[in-house]
Amino acid sequence: MSLKERLQTEMKDSLKSKDKLRLETVRSIINAVRNEEINRKLILDDPLIEKVITGLVKQRRDSIEQFKIAKRDDLVAKEESELSILMEFLPEQLSEAEIHNIVKSTISEIENVTIKDMGKVMKAVMSKLENKADGKVVSEIVKSFLK
User: What is the pTM of this model?
Assistant: First the structure.
């Protein structure tokens, strides 16, 4: 079953079970995918849909940070619930140790790297991770290696 079909099934199930939060979240994913398809003028496959969902995850994490600063615990709870639903549609996320190993091997493949090569290293690492890790975490690990 493709990711798009799975989203449609989840939306129907959420409607039947009257799970309002899940329904809203799944609909937001479907709408974001549809918008991206319109922008790109093509039908998205699973890896591209995962990228769209990764963008939504990033938005939720940023919102959570901002709501915590504003001491809006009600909104933090809602965003965290949506985040957990979004994560169900992404591949299993890698642990920091696994990311650490991938970064280490990538840096060893690219010779004579300095902190100035951060962009080159990030591009190579992110292509290997394929939506299985948060870019912010990867960036921090790469910086720790390049210092």
Answer: 0.80
